[in-house]
Amino acid sequence: MTDEERWVQEVYQGPDRQLTVRAALTGMGLGAVLCLSNLYVVLKTGWSLGVTITATIVAYGLFRALRLGGFSRTPFSALENNAVASVASSGAWMTGGGNMAALPALLLLTGQRPGGLVMVAWFALIAALGVFVAIPLKRQFINREKLPFPMSVATAEAIRTMHGTGDARPARLLVQAGLVASLFTLWRDVRGPFSFPWRLAAPFSLSGHPAAAWSLGFDSSLVLLGGGSLMAPRTAASMLLGALLTWGVLAPWVVASGFVSSVDFKALVQFMLWPAAALLVTSGVLSFVLRWRSLLDALSSLGAVLRPGARPAPSAVDAVEAPAWWAVAGFVVLAPPLVLLMWWQFDIPLWAGALAMPLALLVGAIAARVTGETDITPTKAMGPLTQLVFGVALPGHVAANVMSANVTSGVGLHAADLLSDLKTGWVLGADPRQQVYAQFLGLVVGAAVVVPAFTLLIPDASVLGSEQFPAPAVMVWAGVSKVLAGGLGGLPRGAVGAMFAAAALGMVLSVLEALLPARRKAWLPSPSALGISMVIPAATALTMVAGAVGGAVLRRRWSTATLTPVASGLIAGESVTGVALALGRVLFGG
Prior knowledge:
The protein is mainly α.
C-alpha cells in the first residue's frame, strides 16, 4: 500500500460537510475583509501578511458565538473551518504576486489606469491559472515528496486545537485587539483638536535639520506594531540597521554631496530607491539561482507530472484527488484570453504574451517547491527576474516589462497558496477537490475587492512613494523598469555608484546566506529587510522594530498562540478602519 492509499484509508474524512454554504459565505466575507487589510499593509510596508490562521480563529469564534446564542444548530467542524481558510486566503492574497506592485508601478510610470472590470478579469485570470498549475503538483509535492510546508502544518494544528478543546480565547483576543485598534485609528485619523499625532518625531537635529525631516521618529500605527511583533529577530535587526544607516548616515551624506537638494522623504526616496532596487533585485535573483537544487528538483518533479509513463496506475486516490486533466483544460481555456488581454490592454505582442505562459508554468512549480521547503514564496525574486527577461525581449517597453512580470509572479503566488492550503487539508484529511473549489471562490472575491479598493486608496500616482503610502515594492518594480527601458543614463547624479555598491552588498550577503550554517546565518543581515528599510520612512521601520522587541518580550509571558491573535487583531482593526475612513472621505468629503 502506498502512502497515498494509506492516507485515503486512515486520514481522509470524506467529502461531507466541508465547503458548506455557510463555510463558503464566511470565507468569502473574511477574504474580502482580509484583502482590504493586506492592501493597506502592503502599501505601507511592502509586506503581505499571512491570513490563514487569522481566518480560522475568526471563523471559529463567530460560529461558536452563533451556536451559544442559539442561531446555529449544527456544530462548526474543523474541516469546515479549513474550507473557510482556503477561501479566505485565496481572496486575501490577491494583493500579492506582484498585483499591488505591477498595477501601481504602471500608474506611476505611464499614468495608465486600466478599467476596473478589465483589471478584475486580469487578476482573476492570473490567479486561476496559478490554481490550475498547482493541481498536478499536489500529488508530487505533498503526497509523495512530503514537503514540510511548516506554516500549513501549524494552521492544521491550530484548527485541531480550537475544535478539540473548545478554546475560544484566541477569538476573543483577536476581536478585543481589533476593537482597540479601530478606536485608536478613529482617534488618530479623524482630525480634531484632540487627535493623536500620526508621527512622534525624534527630539533632536541631524546635520542642521530636525529629525522629522529625515523621517526619524515613531509612527503611531498599531498595524506596524502588530506586524513587527510577528517578525523574525533577524528581520527586525536588519530593518533597524537599514533604517539607521539609510536615514541617519546615507541620507545626510546624499544631501551634503548635492545629489538631493531638499530634505524631505519624497525627494530623498527618489534617490534611495535606486540602491534599494539594486540590493533587492541582486540578492533576490542570486539567492534564487543559488537554490539550484530546488530548481532542479522542481524541474524534475514537473517532468514527472507531465510524462505519461510516470503516472501511477489508477487507484482509490484518483477518485479523491483533483484530476490532472483539470490543469490541462484550465491552461488551454485561460491562457488565450490572458494573452489577448496583454495585447489589448498593454500593447504586449502576442508572441511575448505566449512566451509568458510556459514561463508562468515554470515559475509556479519553482515557487511552490520553495514555499514547501522554506515557507517563503520567492515572489520578490520572481518579479524582477521576469522583468529582466522581458527587458531583453522587449527593450524600452515599460508596460510589457511590468505586466508580464505580474503574470508570472501572480501564477507563482497562487500556485504556492493553493498547495499551502492543500497541505493543511492533507494533515486534517480534507477533500482536495473541495479545496480547489474554495480557492476559485476566494480569488473571484479578492479580484472584485482589490481593484476598487486600490482606486479608493490611490486616487492618483502622487500618493505612491509618499510617507502615507511608501509602497516600497511599487517603487522597486518601477525603478527596475526605468533602468531596463532607459538605461543608467537617466538616473539621478550619484545613483549609479550607489546602485553598484548596493548590488555588491546584495551579492555578498546572498552568497554568505547560502554558505553559512543556520546558527551563524541568524547574525547575517537580511538583504530584503535592508532593501525595504531604504524605501520606507525611518519612523515606519523603527515602529516595526519596536513591535518586534515588544513581541519578543511578550513571548516570555505569553505563548505564540496568544500573541498571534492579538497581533492579527491590531493589524485588521487599523487597516480595515483606515480603508473605511478613506471610503467615508470619498463619499462625504473632509
